[in-house]
Amino acid sequence: MTRLAYEKPTILRHNAALANKFGRAPGVRALERIDGVKVLDLVAQFGSPLFVYSEHRLRRAYREAYRAFSQRYPKVQFAWSYKTLYLDAICRIFHQEGAWAEVVSEYEYQMARALGIADAHILFNGPYKPEKDLEVALLGGARVHIDHYEELYAAERIARKAGRKIGVTLRISLDAGIHPRWDRFGFNLENGEALDAARRIHSGGHLTLQGLHCHIGTYIADPSAYGRMAAKLAALALQVRRETGMLVESLDCGGGFASRATLHAQYTPGVDATPPVDDYAEAISRAILEAGFAPSELPTLFLETGRALVDEAGFLLTRVVGNKRLADGTRAVIVDAGVNVLFTSFWYRHDVLPAEDRGGMLEDTVVYGPLCMNIDVVRPSVQLPPLEAGDTLVVRPVGAYNVTQSMQFIRLRPAVILLGEKGEIDVIRRAEELADLKGPEFLPKRLTS
Amino acid sequence: MPQRYPTVLPAAAESQLDMGSARVAIAENVRNNRVLAAMRWLGDEVLAVYGLVLFGAPLHASVLLLAATWVAGVPSAALGLLSLLLAQGLARVLLPNSSVSERNWLACNALLTGLYLGALYAPNLTLLALAAMVTLAGVLLAAALRSLVDRYLGIPLLSLPFVVASWGALLLARHFPGLPLAKAALAEPLSLPLSDGPREILRLLAAIFMQNSAVAGLLVGLAWLLWSRWSLILALLGILSGQAILALLGGTHTGTELAHVGFNAALVAVACGGVFVVLSKSSLIAACLAGALATLLGIALQGALLPLNLPVLAAPFVLLTQGLLLALHGRLGSGPLQLVLGPPLRPEDNLHQVLQSARRYPPVGMPLLYLPVLGRWRVTQGPRGALTHQGQWAHAWDFEVENDQGERFRGEGQAVQDFYAWGAPVVAPGDGRVVRVINHLEDQEIGHVDLAHNWGNMVVVAHSGGVFSALSHLQQGSIGVHEGQTVVRGEVLGRVGNSGRSPVPHLHVQVQASAEVGAPTLPAQFLHFLQIAVDEQSYQTCGSPQTGALLQSLATQSSTARAFAFAPGTQIHWLIHGQQLGPPRRETWSSELDALGRRTLKSNGAAASIYIDDSYATVLDYTGPADTLLAMYAVAAARVPFAAADGVTWHDSPSILAHLSKPVRILLELLMPFGAQTGVPTHSRLMQGSDGTLVLETKIRRPHRLMRAKQLPDRLQLLVQPGVGPTALRAYRGDLLCLDAEVTL
Prior knowledge:
The complex is a heterodimer. By secondary structure, chain A is of the alpha/beta class. Chain A contains 12 helices and 20 strands.
């Protein structure tokens, strides 16, 4: 007979599992399957930590969003925001569904071109575009969103050198009635810079104004903010048309729609609190349709949705490493994925669910990651049943930003797999090895002995 | 890769460095131009007039007709030609703004008058003077009558001025002693070994040109045989019907009398069988009946005109044809006989155009709407739907929105807001004027209906052509337009609601003939939409979708539209590599626009008439040799929607006639009224290629064995640069590349 490990007894206050001032007991006790595939099988096959993406959810999210907008506005084009998740397989899925590409740096631009996306279908954003990459993009026909005057002058130089007129989009910042107000990107509308920039484009003679772009924030749960933004953007487009004659053919309303994740300070869970994408579509479409465009001059509506399309399609599987009791008796669990792969846990209260319901009393638990850093907390408090080392936990929704913002700090980045619609399981990014980390390094000769 | 196309027509001859040789070159040019101009004048304004007698025969047939007039009677032919030239001159002077076709028609009447007078009277100066005066009178009379008849009756005058002018001449001539009648008919230049019957028929054909010679008739028949077989068949049918009816009625008429009347039967049969009425089995019967009627009318008129001592000439033909056209005018396409819309061509071409149009384009007179909703909608009840679209309200569509999983609502579906269709904008299905708005009715709860106000909140829009579209069950207070307001296609009228007899939020669309609420519906079709099936977006130019169809309005891409704009004046230079050994061939296409707004792509001898609007570009018809690149293009790009989505597919069946060898084409033309297919079915797909190019791939399904055209490949691939134009065209037979053409600067 093997000796059982000793665990010091603790006194635990029972919850009657009814509503109390801390809320109801969680209804879901375990997440055994993702898209019909057993979580434990995935971990057994691929190890942990492991990012899991569901193709079905990705496609459904895109189609829902496209339906919501296309039934309210005649010309809609989505552009997949690469910075949210730029793995080839994911980008390819969205491009197959009909999305263009939205990139914010030269390497994202190259990723899009490598996937076969034509320049004309790339939206190039960002406050820093090195001039040589800006030139490649502009001359290729990409839709470049100009952030500040120096970029505008650089674009003019490029157009003058090429000897032809090039179309550009102006990024605009404006007050949409929300906080925080993002006025660090683009030309501000309220202080007049936006209109000045448009006039400058017109008088410069080397560029034409192709479109206007505004991205008001991230995780905005109030669709009316988008309505206000779209109305102001449309009004600016009409003003530009009146004053300079330039026809703005596209309005890019950016992204930032809330997904069904929950912010730390948010009481109502995201599943209940986040408005459906139809509300955003209604606000934006109505604002533009009622702005007063002539029917033949109605601009194309571009959307750079990222989070809202991919967040709920992504899961992280992690295994318990150890248990602890903290000084005040709080239970703590250490798992093998921390803020190194879950950067968004600084802001969001992700669901942490066991992969298997083995019963047991739920207890408030702190979930710590594997890093030797005090900030590495996945969840400061979550109700979990007793767990043993090796038990698998599912963290969701983690589809947006976590893969792209993963660090190589202390631990190497994990594998990412994709569950296909017909049950296929594919590795779309393998787990990193030491060579991936040390590869770019050089050791000076004088330090080798 | 060419960036743009030159937009001016080609410059004249290259500059010569040597001024002397330049001068010589210019003089040479001018002389050549003068010769060319003379040749063109001869063809367009002299020979064409002879062809006009047979409803527009081309040059090679007209030469035979000219020969026919000269064969049997030189004086008659000479007077005819002189009258023709005089009339052309008078028309230029008196009617300076007239078109070539109008002057030719005036000259045609003068030609017939001259031929007749020259055949009737002996040639002398008096006759010449009389003919000149009569020509002048005839031209003035014709011009005056034509503007009246064209504007108020809308039917062609045909050769009525000839008849009236000739009668005038005859009435005049008997007062002047200097006009003796001509001697008896000259001997035939050739003796033809024919029996009486066929000889009589040939004489009748010659009588069209006021001649009496069987050889002339043979030339006329030959001209028709070379140009339009069906015209000849109809003419013979007319003549035979005339003879048959006379035999039936048991009349006794001498050959000459018949000759004075009989040719009318030929002409009226051609006119009423194929030229002004579309050739069909019914029109053949009509031609026979018309021929019989013409003969009888001629004999009757002969009796009536006897006291005045005037001949019947072409009066029966003119009166009968005009009468039939008046009777059919305005009754388009409803019966077995169909009027030819547009300028009348030879019978085969008229029929071919009608067959093509019926096969490929919306039916004439059918009300056409664009989809009144945006995005993807399901037709939950179509025309003659079992629920409510019955009887007088059969032609209507109910539209609802489904999500990816086929659900029409989120959550429980207990509230109207849960339904995806709720609140969706409803747009005007075409330009028009709002004539009726009901905006105050309440939206019903799910499952409840308002039977007192069947259609709920609605908008009725009046469109051109006297049709009205009605959009019903809209949201209370959502209609932003008022009665009397002009709206354009795509303008938001209101929002989908749940008012009236509507258990769940949906949009009801119908076309009706009045502005009344609840008027009976008219059959209609939607324009330019995509029909969505599993993994397939198939484009339809027009159609009436049935219950269960999933539709999406065609979102267009302006860069694709610009690539197919073919702005008038542009030229596209192709370099073609064929499979056979030999140097690569060059071909240049030029885009033209005529005064009537018709667009054509021309390429040395070949012409493709094209139609472009903001939704699609289509090749209406191709005429010319089968081996040009333009012929391939006419099949590859017979129809191109400017779809923004990738992978849109569609079917078409462009005409195969131009691709057939001459004997097969003639055979097919003969079989056309009896149901022979003239189109080759194709299946096309528009895809995004690498680097932003568009790839239009057209697969040709195997044509019928009879129509096997050696020139047609299996698969055509057209590469297009968005915003610029075509860059390459390739043809494959199986996997073998049999033609590779690319655009050069």
